[in-house]
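Q: I have 135 residues here and want to know how they pack in 3D. Can you give me a structure?
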Amino acid sequence: MEELLKNSLRATVLSHKHRGALPPVRVTISSSPHEFSIRVSDRGGGIPNEQVPKLLKYSATTADDKSQDDRDVFSHLIGSMNPAAAGPMAGFGYGFPTSRAYSQYLGGDLQFNTMEQMGTDVFLRLKHFDDSFYI
């Protein structure tokens, strides 16, 4: 969950840093008798269409290497809220694939919908644990 929020916050901050107020990152939680779902929705500019196929590949990143200043802006923001989380926050290409692997291991899934120049919605779905999970 932390990885999903970090990605949405980063995209929102970087895509709106010269525009004044930031749009909200919205988190929606729903539950059914067998599973629960969490949606993280941002208006952080979306993911370029040509980069979408590589989102599930390890070591592939959508973070832009050309602008260290952008990374510094986001790292400063995160570091001011949580000093333990300061430092390079993006660009290694392990966040989304690892998060999806964990969710599938726990009986769920991780999916996304993105609109270039608009934003991204990420859906995390997990099963409720019951006694049969531990047997």
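Q: Anything worth noting?
A: Strands lie at 26-31, 35-42, 109-115, 119-127. The helical segments are 2-16, 68-81, 95-105.
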